[in-house]
Amino acid sequence: MVYVIVGNGPAGTNAIEQIRNIDPTGKIILIAQEANLPYSRITTPEYMTNELEEQDMYIRDADFYENYGVETRLGHRAEQVRVLENAVILENGEKIAYDKLLIATGSRPFIPSWIDLEVEGVFSLWNKADSEEINSFLPQVKNAVIIGGGLVGLQAARVLNACGIKVSVVEMANRLMPGQLDQAAADMLLKALGNHGVQVLLGTEVKSLQVKENKVEGVQTIDHFLEAELVITAVGVRPNLDFLTESGVQIEKGIVVNEFMQSNVPTIYAAGDIAQAASLLTGESMLRALWLTAVQQGKIAGASMAGSRTAYPGSHAMNSIQLFGLPIISLGRIEGGSGVEEVILSQPSSGVYQKLLLENGCLTGLLFAGEVQEAGVLYHKLGQLLNQGYWGSLRVLDVEDMLA
């Protein structure tokens, strides 16, 4: 049996481990565009400013490929999948045959049409190479503008601020991290940024970059001009699926997979940012570009490819972050709606915000900011009745009764 893995992020590496645990003799070939050991993209902002050493980025040791008997094609890009031939074609023309194929190519940053990455001082921040390019540029930076108030953008703002650089964040939405935080938690985060001297412009659209002699000088919004020697765009990501055009693999927002991470083509599986899998709470087929999701899906895909029929229970949103001294955890839903009750355990005015979301007595989400230790108690209760668990030293059922 020949297993081909395209992508060496968390999904690909966990799939390799599962395959080898089940099939000790099958051939595993890894194709990866970056010529690195597997590393965590979450750490790229810290690596950018030397807050984190290079060796601390890696999620597997240098002997990982050898220990798992993996034949590698590092620094190579999959150009095409020929389904009828069971083969992947690389950019150099090499043809690699497979019996089972896993697509785990992850995402790439979305670059707005008005952003020119060829301009000196303008960068995206997604991979190790981006971090290294920005790092070499930092000595000449006094002012930086981050376009995008999501997780990547705010992580970049934090590390640059820690370096003594004046940082401004421009976000089109009316709150920071709108996909992960409600208004109350976002307001707490906004205050934390302000306390550290970071300027934030919400509900603001960038009109253009000001460039002179191919060097960026600043960012022009509708109402403001922000001086900047460094501009980082962090306005979202897109799945890496271009090489599957005309492959016959069903693609909607991502590769549509079943509970075994198997596509409509029986020999092809998908996991991670590019996999459109079922939601744990709703059953809806969706993309979930999260580290933990990629790990879980990679394990299921690898086991399925090697013959173990373990079903994926479904994905759910989860974010655990610490920004500007404020720890935040969100899980599942973050805001109420039809039939969803919001139970506030602690108001933001106390410096601690804790909210549960319940539907028919079942936990469908939580959002904690300021104090997050007890969130772990409820992680495994998502989708279950709360009276099946405990809330620290207080029974969750009692919390419900008290706040009903």
Automatic annotation (TrEMBL):
Signal peptide: none annotated. Residues 319-375 form the NADH-rubredoxin oxidoreductase C-terminal domain. Keywords: FAD, Flavoprotein. GO terms for molecular function: oxidoreductase activity. Pfam families: Pyr_redox_2, Rubredoxin_C. Its cofactor is FAD. Residues 3-298 form the FAD/NAD(P)-binding domain. Coiled coil: none annotated. It comes from the Bacteria. Transmembrane segments: none annotated. PANTHER family: NITRITE REDUCTASE [NAD(P)H], PYRIDINE NUCLEOTIDE-DISULFIDE OXIDOREDUCTASE DOMAIN-CONTAINING. This is Pyridine nucleotide-disulphide oxidoreductase.
